[in-house]
Amino acid sequence: MNPDDDPEPVDPVTAWADVTASDPKPEPAPAPGQVDRDESSEPIAADIINWRYLSSGEAGQVWADLRDWVEWFTVRYHVPPSIVPNCWWQHEQLVEELTALYTAHVVSFDDADTGLGPIGWHERLAIAMPRLTRAYGGGCSERHQTTKPRTWSNVTDENLWTAWTTQAHAEPAPPTGAAEERKEG
User: Fold this and answer.
1) Is the Cβ–Cβ distance between 101 and 109 less than 8 Å?
2) Does the global pTM surpass 0.85?
3) CB neighbours (10 Å) of residue 49?
4) From CA 109, how far away is CA 152, in angstroms rounded?
5) Are 135 and 94 in contact (CB under 8 A)?
6) How far apart are CA 157 and CA 73, in angstroms?
7) What is the pLDDT of residues 124-169, one digit of tens each?
């Protein structure tokens, strides 16, 4: 480097000697990676993943992105297999919880975030950890154990359902037998 290329040192006292209160305040230089917050008023948003309505065409990329994030997340945060097993993707409730955490993580660490996103995400993570534990419940330490899903086939009496749902229910229904007691009295 040529010594002539070095700028002259600036004396801070003389640099500000001609500045008056009426002079406009210079704009500070943005820090590296800083986002211009005045650029847009669009809210920060992530694509919400709703597995119930996800098409088969969309699913492949969503699964790939979620897998990549879950593998990173479990290593980064030392999440043991007793909470997120290797077969996590076969446990529907766990998939829903991990998907919600993933989406919140994407938004919380967006460049346009105000700066509170990361701490907010960690607060949500602390709340989510017990739910992750309940969502899985263990049992797949040797190999995947299929959880028998709850079913609604043939459990609802359709006549009873229709009779119930066609009423407003503004007042609680009298206990069974109470109507007969009133008639007798």
Assistant:
1) no
2) no
3) 19
4) 40
5) yes
6) 45
7) 999 999 999 888 777 776 677 777 766 778 777 888 878 878 777 7
